[in-house]
Amino acid sequence: MIKITKILVILGCCIAFVGHANAGSKEDQLIDKVVAAYGGKQLLKVKSLNIKDYYKGFSYGQSHNPTMVDLVSYRSDSMIDLNKKRKDFKWIRGGKSSFSTQHQIFDGNQGYQLNHTLKTLSPNASLTYASADRRHFYYLDTALAILLNENRADAKLLLNEKSIAGSEIQLRLTIKGYEELTLYIDEKTGLIAKMSKPHWAPGKLSVYNYSDVKQQQGVRYAGSTYVTKAGQPSFVSISRTLVINPDTSNYFKLPNDYKENAPTLSFSEMMVEKIFDNIYIAGKSWGFSVFLDTGDYFIGTGGYEDLKQRFWAVQKFANMDKPLKYQVVSHHHTDHLEGMKEANELGVTFISVEEHQALIKELAQVDIKQDRFEFVKNKASFANGALQVFDIASGHATHNLITYFSQAKLLFTADMFFSRKVKGSPNGGATLQLLNKRLLKEQLDVDYFAAAHSGRVLTAEDFDYALNHIVKAQCPENWQICEGY
After folding, report:
1. Sign of torsion, CA 191 148 217 48?
2. Among 45, 96, 42, 107, which residue's Cα sits nearest to residue 72?
3. What is the CATH number of domain 23-260?
4. Is the pLDDT of residue 153 over 80?
5. Predicted structure pTM score
6. How buried is residue 420: exposed, middle or buried, by Cβ count under 10 Å (0-12/13-18/19+)?
7. Cα–Cα distance for residue pair 456/415, rounded to 1 Å
8. Cβ-Cβ contacts under 8 Å for 51 (sequence gap 6 or more)
9. Is the pLDDT confidence value at 11 over 70?
10. Second label for 243, Cα 20 to 30 Å away, from 28, 364, 416, 479?
11. Could you give phi then psi for residue 10, rounded to 5 degrees?
12. What is the C-alpha separation between 149 and 130, in angstroms, rounded?
């Protein structure tokens, strides 16, 4: 019995050591210091968190006016169940006069998107425990401290590296399913001063700054968060409410009476389709273009990235080698200008409004000569009337060029009217009403509608349905963050 007991003790020690492989390392010692700084035993007792944030965001590249940077209001309600690895995320973007809502749930196994306006529920395989809250847990340093403690084996101390935060100790956290995070830990206090992660632009960082330290139930947390992206201001906290081990009974509920959203098209591969005798649509993912063959050259619309690939796909499909002479630039939002560098390399003349010229040059990364611009003032006509361009002002952008292909009675728009559903007509909004008003004014007879974000071409019947089913965003009554909306 004594020998068996000794063996069990030895095995128990070995098992404990394997489960805590980092024990005694510099990383482990630093993590212990972080845990102690955020409450020690009290932090370890945290089983769930409810974070309600009100913050402001700066809208670069997506503003209403090309010469301005919009300031946008946000409210979020994040419930994190640390034990069952669940998240329930509610989000409001915009002010009382114009806003949108989003609700996402990860139940521990499956992600869901809920639309409370349309009363639909959609399973979403891309939603995970890490992403279901749009990674809003990055805004709370305490959540990062818990994540760090749960994933000690994935932490690595960075030595002899210049810190963006000063003299803080840097700890790199690389967890499967998460972005690579660098924590900047105050050597004296053990608190996380900053966190950085790679920005989409090469060599740039998104940096989260934590301040205004508060305490609740023995647990410390930052009352304020300030975020920069690629060196520019991005988000700043206005107020934060944190509840530790909250009542979760009103969260993680999936309505029984909601319908499942209709199946959608993914467009994972490049598609090319001939719409009319001399008109082609091409694209994949979220970027599509329509090209008009005028006889001697092409005119293109849709300025998303991979413009060359779309144009080459059309040339191959049509078995012809003609230049892209003109490119219509719909509006100033960055995603719709990503193809301008490629358009410039193709030698196009840009059809645009004068207000967008500077941004086109910036995205093309070259000083394009003045004679390569054709500016539209209200409306313009090209290729002997085969293509007409109209400038519309809306709540989305001060200038948005829509393109009408006369022979096919086809209208191409960006961010105005489209659907990625396999079948069925979409609901409409305020922008659609503005578009319809302009079509009536110009007496345009439109049979088909193509768009920059979908390869599906809609019909006049779809447009009429959308106009008769205008949906206005509503804030669910049981959302606490909806107060005042």
Report:
1. positive
2. 96
3. 2.50.20
4. yes
5. 0.84
6. middle
7. 14
8. 76, 77, 78, 80, 136, 137, 139, 140, 143, 240, 241, 242
9. no
10. 28
11. -65, -45
12. 16
